[in-house]
Specification:
By secondary structure, the protein is an alpha+beta fold. Helices cover 43% and strands 20% of the residues. Helix 3 (17-30) packs across helix 5.
Length: 128
């Protein structure tokens, strides 16, 4: 969230920056926003450092798009990547969610294989 709202490179990395910023706000609001002091601290920090691009989205009238669909990223070596994004809300009391990104097209799949040095079609695994 800090990268999206405070780093000028984010607007280059995310060609659909407005949609990504709205999705970040939606994710922030869907968590334990009122009860988590860390989220309150992050919100105060971003209100001060990012200004209107953040604080305007925090107003109740801000967009409520869910982080799902196709996200475009501008990678410095691979060019534009199109990633299909799906969010799975987990049924637990600690407000966790699982976000999965997969190549949305053959060109992105090929570019990711080239970046990682993988054989086309091999299994992908991400540790987090």
């Amino acid at each position: 969230m800090r990268f999206v709202f405070t780093d000028p490179r984010a607007r280059v990395a995310y060609p659909d920056w407005d949609r990504i910023a709205d999705a970040q706000i939606t994710a922030l609001r869907s968590g334990s926003f009122g009860a988590d002091p860390h989220l309150a601290e992050l919100t105060a920090e971003l209100t001060a450092t990012a200004g209107a691009p953040f604080s305007d989205r925090m107003k109740p009238t801000a967009s409520s798009s869910r982080p799902t669909g196709i996200e475009r990223l501008a990678h410095p070596e691979a060019g534009e990547l199109r990633l299909a994004c799906e969010t799975l809300e987990l049924p637990s009391a600690d407000d966790q969610r699982l976000i999965v990104y997969l190549p949305a097209d053959t060109a992105t799949s090929t570019a990711l294989d080239r970046l990682t040095g993988r054989r086309p079609g091999a299994l992908r695994m991400v540790n987090g």
